[in-house]
């Protein structure tokens, strides 16, 4: 009994074709491994796309005249102040000096940074005194059906 190649049935795929297919698969896999993470990084996820949208921070009654309250807007602290002079305003709560979180000072009726006594105007966010180099940026603010809704910052936030 002889066992020659001619006795074997014809293979549906040649060795050369098999190696070419394997090489092609390898190249496609390598390119996918490079480009899929890049595309995933560049395209925002749904959660990221939703971040930055208007944020309901509470009822209008939660922010009475003469108060300032720090709230979180898309994981960023924002102080909502309500004054007789300026009404309801939203300011970044991140001090422009070294990034401390500001608070409402109801004795002085100003926004105060507790770290180095920086004081800010609660209506405009401008520096009143202290070391901060610039004022606190305002945020978009709207009252819709009795709810206070905060939008985008109208200036550069410290650290961003
Ligand atoms: S961090 Fe606000 S005054 Fe220094």
Report on this model:
The protein has a four-stranded antiparallel sheet with strand order 5-6-7-8, with no helix packed on it. Strands 1-10-9 form a three-stranded antiparallel sheet, with no helix packed on it. It has a three-stranded antiparallel sheet with strand order 2-3-4, with no helix packed on it. The chain is α+β, with helices and mostly antiparallel strands. It is elongated, with a radius of gyration of 30 Å. The N and C termini lie far apart (82 Å). It folds into two domains: 5-42; 55-153, Rieske [2Fe-2S] iron-sulphur domain (Rieske Iron-sulfur Protein). The chain has helices at 15-42, 46-50; strands at residues 55-59, 67-73, 76-83, 87-92, 103-105, 110-113, 118-120, 127-129, 139-144, 147-153. FE2/S2 (inorganic) cluster is lined by residues 95, 97-98, 100, 113, 115-116, 118, 130-132.
List keywords for this structure.
160 residues, alpha+beta, Rieske Iron-sulfur Protein, four-stranded antiparallel β-sheet, 21% helix, elongated, binds FE2/S2 (inorganic) cluster
